[in-house]
Amino acid sequence: MKRYITALLVLLASVSASATEEGVLKPQAWNEMNEVIVQGDIPEIQGIATAPVLFTPEQPSTSVDTAALAVWAGGEGWSNLLLGGIVATIALFTLFTMINGSVKLDKGFSGVKIFRWSKADIIFHWVGALSCLGLLVTGIAIASGRFLFADMMGSHNWGNFIQSMVSSHNWMAFPFILGWAVMVLKWGSKQFPEKGDMAWFRALGGYINNGKGKHPDAGFANAGEKLWFWAFTLFGGVLVFSGLAMMFPELFGFDKGAMNWMLVLHMVGAGIVGVFAVVHIFMATLISEGGMEAMVTGYCDENWAKQHHNLWYKSLR
Q1: I need a surface site. Which of 5, 209, 227, 249 has the fewest CB within 10 A?
Q2: The whole model's pTM is what?
Q3: CB-based burial of residue 2 (10 Å sphere; 0-12 exposed, 13-18 middle, 19+ buried)?
């Protein structure tokens, strides 16, 4: 009898040991870690480590600057400001165009063409311009979409939509950077202040039709174009720097506190460049007759040059 009891106890002990051994999580069977890039944030690690020693943060979370979070405040106010500013500018200039009409050439088109922009100028302008418009559209979708129509789309459709917007936004950043850099370097020498710039602003560029025939002096670039150029230079640079920092945080060595500030700067830059871009589009297409031709063909009409850039026209003679 004792032999049977002893054998039973040995059997139970072996079964228990086997179950215990099978229940131990073996390091070599653990899942690999995956690095997940979170848009606008530091890359995060998800998964189970392949080694018993887990990664430890290089610095404690208490050292991260959280001041930008108070400024950011969830993002809805910033996204509304971005979208609202651009929509308001479109509405304002649409109303202005309807009331004031376009500014016609006093003497009509002469048919005589004057060289103004090289083929390289035209190419890099449109590379920068089209990518800028694409970035504004996708950027507004990223910033405001979740507050406007994410609930209507459903989680699956919204996930696919926002991922495509983020990918498109990131890819379009590179032609924008190229166009921005070339235009700033190539055109900067023609954009410095001149004597008649303040008079141009006081006359509102001669674009108010009740003052028709009063066209202020302007060189190659008028005062309004110079203002747009330097805003594009400065705040386009803010967009480039903050955008690259958010895309490649490891190259800049930024922590999450600095990344939050980059997001704030990016929204500020986008709002200012977006508003100026809307004004620029209206001025070149609907408000100024003959204004678009030069950036399409490289040549402007002689009467357009005399009316809008008379000092530059005189310098050619």
Answers
A1: 5
A2: 0.76
A3: exposed
Question: Per-residue pLDDT tens for 11-20?
Answer: 555 544 444 4
| Closest by Cα among 204, 208, 206 to 227 | 204
Q: What is the pLDDT of residues 163-214, one digit of tens each?
A: 999 999 999 999 999 999 999 999 999 999 998 899 999 998 888 876 566 7
Which residue blocks in the chain are alpha helix, DSSP H? 2-23, 67-72, 76-100, 119-148, 150-153, 155-187, 197-202, 223-247, 249-252, 256-282, 294-297, 302-308, 310-316
Each residue of 72-93: b (16+ CB within 10 Å) or e?
A: beebeebbeebbebbeebeeeb
Angle separating helix axes 76-100 and 256-282, nearest 10 degrees:
10
Provide the token pair at 15: 């079964």
- Measured in residues, the chain has a length of 317
* DSSP label at residue 29: G
Site of tokens 């710039």: 197
Structure tokens at 259: 């990344």
Q: How far apart are CA 216 and CA 206, in angstroms?
A: 6
45: pLDDT strictly greater than 70: no
Place of tokens 């969830």: 74
Please name every residue paired with 36 in a beta bridge, in sequence order, or none if there are none: 44
Between strands 113-115 and 44-46, the pairing is unpaired
Looking at per-residue pLDDT, the higher value among 36 and 281 belongs to 281
As a whole number, mean pLDDT of residues 224-231 equals: 96
